[in-house]
Amino acid sequence: MAKEEITENDLKYKLNFLSLNIFNSIGRTSICLLNNLFNCSGGSKVYAKTESQNPGGSIKDRPAFYMLRDAVNKNILKQNMTIIDSSSGNTGISYAMIGSFLNLKVKIYAPSNMSEERKQLIKLYGAELILTPAEESHDGAIKKSLEEYKTGGTDIYYMPDQYNNPNNALSHYETTAVEIIKQTGGNIDYFVTGIGTGGTILGIGKRLKEYNKNIKIIAVIPDSPMHGIEGWKYNYSFNFKGFDHNNIIDDYVKVDTEGSYLMLKKLIKKEGLLCGFSSGANLYGIYKLSQKYNGNYVTVLPDTGSRYLSTIVFKDMF
Ligand code: PMP
To answer: What is the pTM of this model?
Structure first.
């Protein structure tokens, strides 16, 4: 069989062989021990990974890179094609960032109520942003992007489909989880995080369970459909081949938006960590759990708070 010819301008070359580019800075984020946030009874500890350190400012750089690299390697995504997907913002920013480096067009469908900064960032990287009605939430954006994908077809569009693509969860299984084990010395009792696509909890959860089956994986979920935690889905569903939630998630804890925002403000003021709403919600979930169970808790702080500064949530802090 003839060997595939790969040139420097090839997408495959840019994604796989050139280490001194933006992709080299995805992952390997720090972990912080949060000492000042709240009193854990019984000597519990809380560790959090600061995912805003990724070049696109959020945890979603990891799955976006994995999904696009896989598609390029399988020749499903080729030069002159457009990446199309729905996103509550962060994955859209990651696609747009990677698309700008690879010189690929990117089209993102997102609910209109996402923060202005996130809209601006998607456009800044040169991607097209189509806003869908806020009241239809993520489901409206998913539906509209699928309609356009079907109309345009697979010669024009590549759809990563982050809600179903196993490379989403795989990115966390192969990178985030491995970093967590290394950075904590494996001294983990609970991994706790919320759900958007479910890639984070299923990817990290599967790896941690394989490492030590006694580690409990706990999902934090919003207490109402009209919650204000950007990035989280109320009606979540799981569909990643190889990542069965029945074998991964042990329990669920509910949080309200108000309490999550308060925790976020505390995180900023007491730990000096400027993060987004879901970070506050993850930590509020841990706070509730820590009132009942002692142990070492680990979570992720999915994105930076600087992309929410214009929202009403931070108004009383200036
Ligand atoms: N927090 C934020 C800020 C997000 O953007 C997302 C992804 N939508 C999540 C949490 C949830 O991550 P996952 O999609 O891996 O469940």
So the answer is: 0.95
Q: Where are the alpha helices (DSSP H) in the chain?
A: 11-12, 61-73, 90-102, 116-124, 137-152, 166-171, 177-184, 199-211, 245-248, 257-266, 277-290
113: helix, strand or coil: coil
Is the CB–ligand 1 distance for residue 260 below 6 Å?
Answer: no
Domains 11-58+167-315 and 61-158 alike in fold: yes
Answer yes or no: is the C-beta of 278 below 6 A from any ligand 1 atom: yes
In this prediction, the residues of the chain whose per-residue pLDDT falls under 50 are none
Signed CA dihedral, 245, 167, 216, 303: sign only: negative
Which atom of ligand 1 sits closest to the CA of residue 303? 3
* Cβ of 90 less than 6 Å from ligand 1: yes
Reply yes or no on domain 11-58+167-315 having CATH 1.20.1250.20: no
Q: Where are the domains of the chain?
A: 11-58+167-315, 61-158
Amino acid identity of residue 13, one-letter, is: Y
Q: Which pair of tokens denotes residue 70?
A: 């896989």
Question: Which is the closest atom of ligand 1 to the Cα of 87?
Answer: 8
For ligand 1, say whether the CB of 303 is within 6 Å of any of its atoms.
Answer: yes
Q: Radius of gyration over alpha carbons of the chain, in Å?
A: 19
pLDDT at residue number 137: 84
Please give the distance, rounded to the nearest whole angstrom, from the Cα atom of residue 180 to the centre of ligand 1.
18
The pLDDT score that the predictor gives to residue 51 is 98
Res 58: pLDDT: 97
The residue whose CA is least distant from atom 12 of ligand 1 is 196
Nearest-atom number in ligand 1 for the CA of 89 is 5
Q: Which of 67, 90, 284 to mutate to test the pocket of ligand 1 (most atoms within 8 A of CB)?
A: 90
Structure tokens, 69: 């690299």
Please report the pLDDT score of residue 138 as a whole number: 84
- According to CATH, what is the number of the domain 61-158? 3.40.50.1100
